[in-house]
Amino acid sequence: MSRPLIIGLTGSIGMGKSTVAAMFEAAGVPVFDADAEVRAMQGPGGELLPAIEAAFPGSTGPNGVDRDRLGGEVFGDSEALARLEAIVHPAVARKREAFLIEHAGAPLVVFDIPLLFEKGGAEAVDRIVVVSAGAEQQRERVLARPGMTAEKFSHILSLQVPDAEKRDRADHVIDTGTSLAETEDAVLALIGELRATASDRRRDTP
Questions:
Q1: Can you give the residue range of the structural domain that contains 66?
Q2: Per the domain annotation, does 36 fall within a domain?
Q3: Residues near 92 by Cβ (< 8 Å), separated by ≥ 6?
Q4: pTM for the complete prediction?
Q5: How many domains does the chain have?
Q6: What are the angstrom distances between the C-alpha of 199 and each of 10, 22, 107, 192, 196?
Q7: pLDDT tens for residues 146-176?
Q8: pLDDT tens for residues 61-113?
Q9: pLDDT interval class at 205 (50, 70, 90)
Q10: Do 21 and 71 belong together in one domain?
C-alpha cells in the first residue's frame, strides 16, 4: 500500500524552521509539529503530566508543566534530560503514527522535527529539508528571544549538529537569509518538485 512521501523538516535554532513549516502548511501540505504536540501533552490536563511529575516532583501544576522549573532541572544534566526524553519521545512517536494514518491519502506530509539528526530520526523520512541562514542572522534572531542569553545560546548550539553538517546531509536546503517572499518562492518550488516525486513513486508502487 502506498503512503505519503515523508519530508523531514529540520534546522538549528533561529534558522526559521517554524516559518518554513507554516509555508508548507499554507500550501496545503499536512505538517506534524513535534514541538506543538509536546506542548499540548505537557499543557493543562496533558497526558504526560503524571509521568513527568513522578520523575520530577513539583515540576507540574494546574497550568501543566512549569517549563522554567523543569528546564532548570534538565539544563546541563544529561541524565535528567535522558529521563525526560524517555517519557516524551515514545509519546511523540505514537502521535506521529496517528498523524500518518490520518493523512495516508496525501501525496506528501512534513514531519517538523527540530532534532532530526541529533536524535536519529533521519532514517524514518524519505527526504530531508534543512532550513538555514547565516550565523550572524541566526545569532541576532535567537538573542532577540525573551529570556535568551549568550550562554544559553552557546549551550543549545553545543547540543545541535552544526549547520554546515546539516546542510551537507540534506536533500534540499531552504535559505531563510533572504526576504520572506524569496523564501516562500523557494518553498513553493520545492513543494512542486516533491509532489512530482510522490506522484512518480505512487505510480511505481504495485
A1: 43-102
A2: no
A3: 34, 37, 38, 41
A4: 0.85
A5: 2
A6: 24, 23, 7, 11, 5
A7: 999 999 999 889 989 999 999 999 999 999 9
A8: 889 998 888 988 888 788 988 899 999 989 998 999 999 999 999 999 999 98
A9: low
A10: no
Let me know whether 49 and 68 are in one domain: yes
**Phi then psi dihedrals of residue 195, to 5 deg:** -65, -35
Quickly state the pLDDT bin for 206 (edges 50, 70, 90): low
**Distance from chain centroid for Cα 11:** 8
| Residues 93, 113 within the same domain | no
113 and 164, same domain (yes or no): yes
In this structure, the answer to whether residues 114 and 60 fall within a common structural domain is: no
